[in-house]
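I am still getting used to backbone structure tokens and would like to learn alongside you. To get us started, please write out a protein record for me. Start from the sequence, derive the backbone structure tokens from it, and show both lines together. Once you have written the record down, we can walk along the chain together:
***
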Amino acid sequence: MGRGPRGAGPPRRLLPLLLLLGLARGTAGAPGADGLDVCATCHEHATCQQREGKKICICNYGFVGNGRTQCVDKNECQFGATVVCGNHTSCHNTPGGFYCICLEGYRATNNKKTFIPNDGTFCTDVDECEVSGLCRHGGRCVNTHGSFECYCMDGYLPRNGPEPFHPTTDTTSCTEINCGNPPEMRHAILVGNHSSRLGGVARYVCQEGFESPGGKITSVCTEKGTWRESTLTCTEILTKIDDVSVFNDTCVRWQINSGRINPKIAYVISVKGQRLDPMESVHEETVNLTTDSRTPEVCLALYPGTNYTVNISTAPPRRSVPAVIGFQTAEDDLLEDDGIFNISIFNETCLQLNRHSRKVGSEHMYQFTVLGQRWYLDNFCHATSFNFTTWERAPVVCLDLYPATDYTVNVTLLGSPKGHSVQITIATPPAVKQIISNISGFNETCLRWRSIKTADMEEMYLFHIWGQRWYQKEFAQEMTFNISSSSRDPEVCLDLHPGTDYNVSLRALSSELPVVISLTTQITEPPLPEVEFFTVHGGPLPRLRLRKAKEKNGPISSYQVLVLPLALQSTFSCDSEGTSSFFSNASDADGYVAAELLAKDVPDDAMEILIGDRLYYGEYYNAPLKRGNDYCIILRITSEWNKVRRYSCAVWAQVKDSSLTLLQMAGVGLGSMAVVIILTFLSFSAV
């Protein structure tokens, strides 16, 4: 068969297409030749619609198929929950639809159990730590993405489980650190009251006859609940006695060389005498002397005309190299009663009067005048006087003196032709008993205590204060100062830093024993944010520069950027906790949190934030500002410690007649460019 002329009919390659179009037109068109109603043949999950003058069956939303014989459920979840519903979700398919559920530890921003993401709803982290007591006693809650962790607070240790821990799965409990009894130190005595809590300090003094050349010996209660022992020890003091000499016929003087010595040294003087007359008996005597002098001396009650051997050594537990001296006393006829006497001191407050005359049988009266002062107290004065009568040649008088006082004692022999007097000085040591009791704190930084002392007598108190912060390891504060008071119930308020743990040692200078008390100060408002203020009138917003604040008044926990209507700036309260996220408000008329950054995520130098960049900072969405509105941008710093929150705020920017941000302007520019490119392409295609 010959070929027909061109244009006589459609090309053969188009015939199959035309046949398919005709078939489709017949199936989807108006009632066919057989009179069948198309709408009556629609699938149960399809609807009949009028399109271009013809009736067709279309599967309902959520179903796919030809509309007449098949409409199968479309599984929207097949691409994965993250793609369909967003992060931290699970996707659930239903006939003709689906819904989303937030995973455990997250909640939907529409505050409902289920949601469809096309309304802007998403899953945000649930801050479980807003519930107090979640981590049990002594526990500290730390929020994490989708959950939370528990740690023991400063001063507590985890027991019976791991750290961090979860209260529903772990048996961990936080118990307060208690180091118990401090360790024993060889040749040392534990003095003063000590705290067994974290940071408590136990202090020791070396026993008599021992010293600590390296300094004071202390043991500290550590975060592990154990005492950290001192590396210093008490070593034995060996006292060397030299240059023993005799003066005034019956008095002995010597020198000591023991390096570092304790304030007082006790001596044992052993006296053994043999008279020249063999018929006389031996004279043996032991004399005890306590003094802090490096050239001690003692006058002995010796017989005239006698050969004596005197052995001088230190009393136990102190050890010494003993010294021995021998001498002979003068005969009786060489002495006369001239009223001269010497005084030696022993047992700190006792005096021994030694007459030069050996003539006995006469009574003598001594007059004592005692005046005591304390170098550290201008108004302190202890004065007394009395007479003392005795037949003895070497009487002993013990005085009732106050501790830690410098005394001048003047003794006069009454009735003597020359009225001979002797003046000596006595420095009494601090008392070995505690005179401070019932110490307690009030008003956070103040102390009061009970003083066990003579009424109306002034006392000086020495304070030694150590301050530390667990959240700021480089922080250390140490203070030492004195106060004076004549009250039996003194009070003092201390200049302490906020958000700090303190150990306070208090000692009356008239006592050797201090008391120690622990104080913890609460945090105060963090420093004001360092911001560069901007005012924007209709132009694009600049990038806002965020600088890290110093932890002067407590640990910094977070930084928040708040967006408020400008009209609310004058009534805004910085410590208001009602500000919510952008999506939780029906409108932004009440303001919202645009960004939240944890302190650990803020670099030490600075970082920049662009308002309206459509990014999430923490759980908050940084939404673009609405054009034409007036806004106030505020930076808020939050400090949190021991369940106390404090805030500080600064106005970062004022935006009037807000325009597009730099990022939005770039987007609009790119969109306009794309339209021009498309129109140009179409014009070239039509040529």
